[in-house]
Specification:
Layout: E1 7-13, H1 17-28, E2 33-36, H2 44-52, E3 57-58, H3 62-65, H4 73-82, H5 85-94, E4 99-102, E5 106-109, H6 114-128, E6 131-133, E7 140-145, E8 148-152, E9 158-165, H7 180-187, E10 192-198, E11 202-203, H8 207-211, E12 216-226, E13 229-240, E14 244-246, H9 248-252, H10 254-262, E15 273-277, H11 284-297, H12 313-322, H13 336-347, E16 349-352, E17 355-356, E18 364-369, E19 387-389, H14 403-418
Parallel strand pairs: 1-2, 1-9, 2-6, 9-19
Antiparallel strand pairs: 3-5, 4-5, 7-8, 8-9, 10-18, 11-14, 11-17, 12-13, 12-15, 13-14, 15-16
This protein binds flavin-adenine dinucleotide.
């Protein structure tokens, strides 16, 4: 049984970006709101985000941002339009967090402190009048009748007229996100689209790749290829690591690799490979021309010295190795065949991929609550009146760059403004 002290207009389950925003918006509209969080501390993912700087949104407007979410674009568009990145900047500005825009439109707090973002949300929550219960996991949600939900917690049941599920996905489970919202959704008959880690680094068991650990490129093109098909492609920052490859470009395409991993299909003729272009701003023909010009004009220079300036020195040497060109070869001595192999190594190195680093290291989860069963304007379940889903628990994820927080804020706000 729930008493008036344990009954609320709205219970929001999960104090992350989406949950805070939903609770604040609902309480500002006069609802009695309780935000439930299973951890003793709220907003842990906000604190670790963006290398503890929290890339809280992206400068793109709603129409520019939505396509970045791929299949989820049309679903997210209404909430992104109703609460776009300018609205996020305004929300935090009013809450005392000044922001700045960095390359690729990434918006961070001026202070570079994720703690400022979380503290602002806590302040806004307090001012809104919403309550918060920490260390209080929702174990199950049951519908007792119209406008009558019971949320079971270890400290007893809580009643609510409306429930907003903002439990996140499965990535970084040590921060509390263990897929609880999927079980809640399933119990109400919702389908969960298969989940995989996304925005996660990739494991490559190739010695020369691992030997380059620490080498970075501001831009490389990374494609996931299966057979002749290019499944995903991205040109952005790139980093070699002791386990393989990381950085925005590999992470943005990682969900494609994760799908093969989930199907145990990382071997065989259709197994995914990574195709890397280390000089995406130079065409193959231009690179070939440049090498030939170097051979005639500066023929005594070693070949690594005449490769594109954008390539770090250690990578140049590795690429000569890959192309089987002796390291002491001079530009004028490069045979046509060696030049062809070298251009191919720079522009289209193919690597086998052994998998992803898994949920433990994934920034987000791909898959989740099936969007066809959720109203894109209100975020309400199409089956269960009064039940809402927002944030990463939904089958929507975007690339690196502030998109995922923006989706969480926007969907959280949409649900919070309607309940
Ligand atoms: C290392 C890292 C860095 C990131 N950096 C960025 C970045 O810079 N920019 C960006 O846009 N995105 C970033 N992301 C992604 C972003 O953090 C998430 O997409 C976003 O936090 C999702 O918000 P959410 O509110 O839906 O879920 P979450 O933030 O995951 O919050 C869910 C909350 O629900 C709680 N919870 C779960 N189950 C229960 C339950 N049963 N009862 C009560 N509470 C429960 C969890 O403990 C958690 O606090 C990063 C992610 C990681 C892991």
């Amino acid at each position: 049984m729930t008493s008036p002290e344990t009954s609320f207009d709205v219970v929001v389950i999960g104090a992350g970006a989406a949950g805070f925003m939903a609770a604040i918006q609902a309480a500002r509209r006069g609802r009695r709101v309780l935000l439930l969080e299973k951890n003793p501390r709220p907003g842990l993912k906000i604190l670790v985000s963006g290398g503890t700087r929290c890339n809280l949104t992206n400068d793109l407007d709603a129409d520019g941002m939505a396509p970045e979410f791929g299949r989820a674009a049309s679903f997210l568009l209404p909430s992104l339009r109703a609460f776009d990145s300018r609205e996020t900047v305004r929300f935090f500005g009013t809450a005392g967090v000044e922001t700045k825009c960095e390359p690729e439109g990434k918006i961070f707090p001026k202070s570079n402190r994720a703690t400022d973002v979380l503290e602002a949300l806590l302040r806004e929550l307090r001012t809104s009048g919403a309550g918060m219960a920490l260390g209080r996991p929702a174990l199950a949600v049951e519908r007792l009748g119209p406008e009558d939900f019971r949320i079971d917690t270890p400290a007893g049941p809580i009643g609510a007229r409306r429930v907003i599920v903002t439990t996140g996905g499965l990535s970084y489970p040590k921060l509390g996100t263990t897929g609880d919202g999927y079980a809640i959704a399933r119990a109400f008959g919702h389908r969960i689209r298969p989940t995989t880690p996304a925005l996660v680094a990739l494991v490559v068991d190739v010695p020369w790749v691992r030997a380059l650990s620490g080498v970075t490129l501001p831009r490389a093109r990374v494609a996931v290829v299966s057979g002749k098909r290019v499944l995903a492609e991205r040109t952005r920052g790139f980093l070699f690591t002791h386990f393989g490859v990381s950085g925005p470009a590999p992470m943005d395409v990682s969900a494609e690799v994760a799908r093969f991993e989930a199907d145990s299909a990382l071997e065989g003729p259709k197994a995914p490979r990574l195709r890397l272009d280390f000089a995406p701003d130079v065409t193959e023909a231009a690179l070939d021309d440049a090498l030939r010009a170097a051979a005639s004009r500066e023929g005594s220079r070693p070949v690594p010295a005449v490769l594109p300036e954008s390539l770090p020195e250690r990578l140049r040497h590795a690429l000569l190795d890959v192309a089987q060109v002796p390291i002491d070869r001079r530009a004028a001595e490069l045979s046509r065949e060696e030049r062809r192999r070298l251009v191919a190594a720079v522009k289209a190195t193919d690597l086998p991929v052994a998998g992803t680093r898994g949920y433990a290291h994934a920034e987000v989860t791909a898959g989740g609550v099936d969007l066809r069963e959720i109203d894109p304007v209100t975020l309400e379940s199409r089956f269960v009146h009064g039940l809402f889903f927002a944030g990463e628990v939904l089958d929507a994820h975007g690339p690196i760059g502030g998109f995922n927080f923006q989706a969480a804020f926007a969907t959280g706000a949409a649900a919070g403004r309607i309940v």
